[in-house]
Amino acid sequence: MLSGALSTCSVELGPYVLGSWIGMLPGTYAYVNAGVAGRAVVMEGGEGGMSLDPVQIGLALVTSAVAVAFIGQTAKKAIEDMEQEDEQERQKEQKQ
C-alpha cells in the first residue's frame, strides 16, 4: 500500500535513489555484522569472546544520524514545496 501511495509522488529518480541508498546503509551494515557474528558462533562454537569494535559502533551511529538528518531535511523540503504549491493554487483560484 505504501509503495502505491509513494508512486504518486513527484520525486525525481536521483534523489529517490540517493535517499533509498542512504536509508538502507545502516540496515545493511547491521545485517552484515549479524552474519559475521553468526558465522563466528557456528565456526568457533561460541567461544572466543566476540566483541564489537568501538569504531564499528561509532560508524553505525554516525551513519544512522546522517541518514535520519538527510531524510528529515528532504521530507521538510517536500512539505514546504507542497504547501507553497497549494498556496499558489489558492491564489489563482481567488483571482478567477
From TrEMBL:
Listed transmembrane segments: 55-72
Give the matching InterPro entries: VTT_domain (IPR053240)
Keyword vocabulary terms for this entry:
Membrane, Transmembrane, Transmembrane helix
PANTHER family, per database record:
PTHR46826, TVP38_TMEM64 FAMILY MEMBRANE PROTEIN YDJX (PTHR46826:SF1)
What protein name applies here? Threonine/Serine exporter ThrE domain-containing protein
This chain's source organism reads: Dunaliella salina
